[in-house]
Amino acid sequence: MNQFLLQQGTSPELQLFPHIIEFSLKKNHSIQLNSFPETISDTLRIYYIMDGKFEWIIHNHEHILYPGDVAVVLPGQKLGGSKGFLDIGSINWIHIKTDKLDRSGKLLPGKWSCLSKNESLAIGKILYVNTHLVLLKAREVGIMLQELRQELVQQQIGYTAAVNHFLDQLLISIARKLSQQNISYRDFPQAFTKLENALRQNLAHQWTVEEMAGLVGLGTTSFTEKVKNYTGFSPLNYLITIRISEAIKLLKRQGLNVTDIALDTGFYSSQHFSTTFKKLTGYTPSEFKKRNVSKN
Q1: How many structural domains compose the chain?
Q2: Model-level pTM?
């Protein structure tokens, strides 16, 4: 699915839907510093992770989101990247303006919705009772967003009713999933978490796919499929994102030179490190370090 950005007031597709403030799909191929600072939402926001690993702060809670996960941000809540930037990967999101959604859980979607008053109140209560509005492996939400996009683009007979119906279905699906889900249990192998910890503790080692697969007791084919499924990346590309993530932390410290950081995070030369770092962040390590030091 290609990238797109529909915004109220500028996109003709949303002319008949004043309650849809923004609808977008973004494929982020590089890290841009300060690209995702914390902001306060004034709408009901729904984010679906298509691929990649995203570290976000939602309403003062840290969350790690993987493909298939959904984050819901309520009006008045803060949202931003844990490191201030948007991680590499693909996200589909929609921002919906409701007539009312307050801290008491009273939800009034608007005239566009076919939900009854009692149904709206029940959904609003569920949204505000749950302190962690993250749905794990909610791929049905991603499917609904794709179908919603098709209705807006094709504009066939009855598409206005169909679009509003999908919005109702999104709210219903999210509320049902939240009421059934226990956030403390993720369908995510503990072995994979241990693998990431092992990689971070010894990034200077030149890890091969075979070695990484061996740490979790899998063959390379099965391991590669699982890594791709959970992160959206190949094992080696995922390893690179970990190396860059650790390098960013080290570059913010004083007294460490770029060459040492390159070797400590597993790059075979400062040139290799510089090329990869700039490709993913838009800055060379030296430029990043200088900007960071000047800010401090």
Answers
A1: 2
A2: 0.75
